[in-house]
Amino acid sequence: MIRTIVTDPLSPSHLAFKEVDVPQAMPWEALVQVKTVSLNRGEVKDAMDQEASSRPGWDFAGIVIEPAQSGQGPQKGARVVGLLPMGAWSEQVAAPVSMLVEIPDKLTFTEAATLPVAGLTALYALRKGGMLLGKRVFITGSSGGVGLFAHQLAAQSGAFVVGMASTEEKSKLVKEAGADEVIIGYSAVSSASQFGPYDLIIDSVGGNTLAALLPQLAPQGVCVAVGFSSSNTATIDMMNLVTSGGRTLYSFFLGEELTRHSAADDLRLLAQLATEKRLIPRIEVEAPWTQIGTIARNLLERKYSGKVVLHID
Length: 313
Fold this sequence. Notes:
By secondary structure, the chain is an alpha/beta fold. The protein is 28% helix and 28% strand.
């Protein structure tokens, strides 16, 4: 038997520990002893809405204890990072080798666990803008996990990058991540126009923020909507959008993106960049996974910038 975290509506945190059978790996899956997991606000929010005994969790890092029977993927003893659609908050997981990659020795399990969802989201969203050298990019939610990764990758691509933060303190983090300019306060989003128009906008806020950003797209520009932390509805000025022409609003869902991209190849790239310190995860909190209840609640209340990583005993 192993321990795992499940949803429990009767628990104050809506999460609880439960003993379950050791996972049985399919031929294309490796069995991994999990060392660390990172939390994403989206998965925590989803867990609050799920029925009892659902098993949340996306990002994990650990050691392969049984390689895939197919012979593909990392071998026994390999240090790995990967992601699952659910169930990663567990002592052991069976992970498809297509979602699993070996990590360099210099990369810690803590650093590796931050990469899958936040790193891949940032990477794939930026790719929607094509070659970014000399282009103007605007990123909302800049002090979050996705935002900080996106700023670092965009800056290294040669883009002029503008971010947005809720406070002066958080704006300093965004500057450190490579932003050329930072807009402070979500209500001041219209002031971003002074640095535009933008070839690429990555928005995780939605609502009025998304509506205010669309007119700031350059001709042939793309706005990638990766989330809606403020509101899941937006009133868009269709006359402005249609008469300007050529601009795109792209709906982004990582699960759908992974049907068209190699997660293993791109995780390998992110892991290498992190090893070379060209991509630096900002880890706000490290804690034992026994503190999942408190940590999850604080994450939902936006008390953290960057990433949260839990260590499994």
